[in-house]
Write a structure and sequence with these properties.
Blueprint: H1 2-12, E1 18-23, H2 30-41, E2 50-53, E3 59-61, E4 64-66, H3 74-97, E5 105-110, H4 112-122, E6 141-145, H5 152-157, E7 168-173, H6 181-194, E8 199-205, H7 207-212, E9 218-219, E10 233-239, H8 250-266
Parallel strand pairs: 1-2, 1-5, 5-6, 6-7, 7-10, 8-10
Antiparallel strand pairs: 3-4, 8-9
């Protein structure tokens, strides 16, 4: 179905097709995120060229699904994560086969889904089952919400050179009680260590700033060129007093705005 939609965009509308593949978190399902992206995040004429794909993780976990086995022995955790990577490689390849260029594909995720996003986009040499090698992708962008680098040792060994060429949107609440904010910060530091040329642009958002429309607390780089040009960098958004997931407060509106602005930059019409 995803391939059919992407092909239609390429052949019938005259627009340059783009795809956003978004991965849900641990114990969740795709339905809530699909509804949010359809009704909010992508509900804008300037983003109508983006096809949304929201796959379900392969493993049952509570009321929903898990991308890899949590709390299992190390070898089982690694095997299940590798199987999920293989599945996501195939999903990206489906979009490429439908005519969407790699640099017009954005891979995003929330929490455990964000971890899978980073592993899928930025590892290339990790061995999968039956000695199948992890593919190397050069995507248009990566979106990590409340994310972290999974299985750091394997991640470091398998890192892809495409990390230095890929823009990253990183959104995280600074009172996250599930994926601690410091864990996300440490993960950003790890990515920067692996690719020192990858600039980190830090933006902190408070309710007062949001209400006054003065969200301009930038660290890193000069000026505001990052707001209008496509570069390989980590654009890190810190949301003050935000926990894990939707808050039904100002945070949600702010993140929607920031994600739309970023998507317009990395996969423009």
């Amino acid at each position: 179905m995803a391939a059919t939609t992407a092909s239609k965009l390429v052949n019938d509308t005259g627009k340059r097709a783009a795809t956003l593949i978004f991965l849900h978190g641990l114990g969740d399902t795709p339905s809530g995120w699909r509804q949010s992206f359809t009704a909010k995040y992508l509900n804008d004429p300037s983003l109508s060229h983006i096809t949304l794909v929201t796959p379900s993780a392969p493993r049952r976990y509570g009321p929903g699904y898990s991308w890899y086995h949590i709390g299992a022995p190390d070898n089982e955790s690694k095997t299940s994560l590798n199987a999920a990577l293989k599945m996501l490689d195939a999903l990206i390849q489906e979009q490429v086969d439908a005519g969407v260029p790699q640099d017009r594909i954005v891979l995003g995720g929330f929490s455990q889904g964000a971890g899978m996003t980073l592993a899928t986009a930025f590892t290339a040499s990790q061995e999968l089952e039956a000695q199948v090698q992890k593919k190397e992708w050069k995507l248009g962008g990566v979106m990590a919400l409340a994310g972290y680098v999974p299985r750091e040792d394997e991640f470091r060994k398998a890192i892809s050179p495409t990390l230095k060429d890929t823009p990253i949107f990183w959104g995280h609440g600074n009172v996250d009680s599930v994926v601690k904010y410091r864990v996300g910060e440490a993960s950003i530091d790890k990515l920067h260590d692996l690719s020192p040329s990858l600039n980190v642009y830090k933006v902190k958002h408070t309710e007062g700033d949001w209400q006054a429309d003065t969200d301009k607390r930038i660290e890193g780089g000069t000026g505001e060129a990052w707001k209008s040009e496509k570069h390989a960098w980590i654009e890190r958004h810190e949301y003050d007093d935000m926990d894990h997931g939707p808050t039904y407060r100002w945070h949600d509106q702010a993140m929607e705005k920031h994600m739309r602005e970023w998507l317009r930059r990395v996969v423009p019409v």
